[in-house]
Amino acid sequence: MRIATFNINGIKARLPRLLEWLDETKPDVACLQEIKSQDDGFPADEFEKAGYQAIWHGQKSFNGVAILAKDGLSLTERMRGLPGDESDDQARYLEAEVEGVVIANLYLPNGNPQPGPKFDYKLAWMERLRARMAAIWTEERPAVVLGDFNVIPEDKDVWSPPAMSDDALMQPASRDAYARLLGDGWTDAIDTLNPRGGVWTFWDYQRGAWQRDHGFRIDHCLLSPELADRLVAAGVDKDARGREKASDHAPVWVEVRD
Predict the structure, then answer these.
(1) Which residues lie below 8 Å from residue 111, measured CB to CB, with a gap of 6+?
(2) Spans of the chain below 70 pLDDT
(3) The model's pTM
């Protein structure tokens, strides 16, 4: 089974690129972030034509997450919205089960500018995420928590640490919160197979970042022990970033044995 994550940065604006990528790579499951679409505007019919069923949690102009699964696979929604704060109405979390694998798709807050309320919200969200991941852990089932974490875990995950030193993505508090997730026993698939780093998943639209390969890694796939034991491969579909009207993120994927 190939499970992928892709911050599409506007599903309507990037729909041709998204359908192109689905046709070329044919992931069994594709988790999308920043769909930037209300529920009634989600192009489910386009995915049906491409052979995918979908569930989604939308929000007008901002955020929004979706999970696609190939036709014929069992897809059951488990949760929408991250628990722990009833006042939080941002569409950033969607959880499902596909063929017995728990899929938790997230778009973690950016946190800029920092310090400030947006950074405080980011750290609080990460604590709530850790609590939800702990609940999933207790089920002792194959599970993957994936998406745009908006955290650069280590200096090896960015083209220039000094260039990003003031960004919320690289603050010690952000990194510590991410490290605690791994410390709870989750496996960072990309890092496990690329321990020396140098793998990017995001290139800004500004300052020629793509052309100069000035990127960093913020899209992650964290596997439970039950799924980490089945890990075959993981990678980044970097070519997708270089296409016309592309997202500023590239798709990230893991492949696990059935």
Answers:
(1) 118, 119, 121, 122, 123, 150, 168, 169, 171, 174
(2) none
(3) 0.97
